[in-house]
Amino acid sequence: MRCQYCHNRDTWDLHDGKEVSVSELMSDLTPYRRFMNASGGGVTASGGEAILQAEFVRDLFRECQAQGIHTCLDTNGYVRKHTEVIDELLEVSDLVMLDIKQIHDDVHQDLVGVSNKRTLDFARYLHKVGQKTWIRYVVVPGFTDDEQSAHDLGEFLAPFDNVEKIELLPYHELGKHKWTAMGEDYPLAGVKPPSKDTMETISGILKQYHDKVIY
């Protein structure tokens, strides 16, 4: 996906970054164990897109669980090919946070450049296997702040008893400077964060379909 509001534009280059091993990451986690134990937190694999490195995240999560560390997979669910590795990754994911960008495919393609079919199929699969899931939905003025989209998203999610909550996130411009630093135009220049009234309206609609909606 190429989200127009991506605040991690610098992660799109798959050949950039620093290569590390699972053991190195586990060593980096050691100083934070006391904090994680006290807060009930754990390790979240995010991105970019964590599923692009499914084998590595699986191995990392296996080691985390072996040491009693909670694991969370933060993903847009755009799984190109559902392989055994995906199931193995889900088996060691205590929680999946699934970003659904837009329930309507045409708007989804305008917003992120690809169809939402794979994401929605992944949501259905998470329900099928009973995977503990939180849904995240970014409210972007002009793209995802309309009432019909909220109703249709709510109807889609209503049968999914594996979804513990829906988290609404107001669009922000905090990643705009990264686009500028890379010499690129920010696609949503001029789009402002949604108002409190808009957030409350979308929240109220989704609460008709799910009993726990937060923002």
Structure description:
This protein folds into two domains: 18-99, pyruvate-formate lyase- activating enzyme; 101-214, Aldolase class I (TIM Barrel). Helices cover 39% and strands 15% of the residues. The chain contains nine helices and six strands. The chain has helices spanning 22-29, 33-39, 54-66, 84-91, 105-112, 117-128, 147-157, 176-181, 196-206, and strands spanning 42-45, 70-75, 95-99, 133-139, 163-170, 213-214. Strands 1-2-3-4-5-6 form a six-stranded parallel β-sheet. Helix 1 crosses helix 3 (54-66). It is globular. The relative contact order is 0.13. The model has no long low-confidence stretch (mean pLDDT 88).
Reported by name, the CATH topology of the largest domain is TIM Barrel
Number of helices: 9
pLDDT averaged over residues: 88
CATH architecture of the largest domain: Alpha-Beta Barrel
Strand content: 5-15%
What is the number of strand segments? 6
Output the helix-strand order. Answer: HHEHEHEHHEHEHHE
The backbone outline, from C-alpha atoms, is globular
| Distance linking N and C termini | 24 Å
Strand order of the largest sheet: 1-2-3-4-5-6
Features:
215 residues; alpha/beta; pyruvate-formate lyase- activating enzyme; TIM Barrel; 2 domains; six-stranded parallel β-sheet; 6 strands; 39% helix; globular; S-adenosyl-L-methionine; cytoplasm; lyase; 4Fe-4S; Pyruvate formate-lyase-activating enzyme
Brief sketch in words of this structure:
The chain is an alpha/beta fold. Helices cover 39% and strands 15% of the residues. The protein has a 6-stranded parallel sheet with strand order 1-2-3-4-5-6.
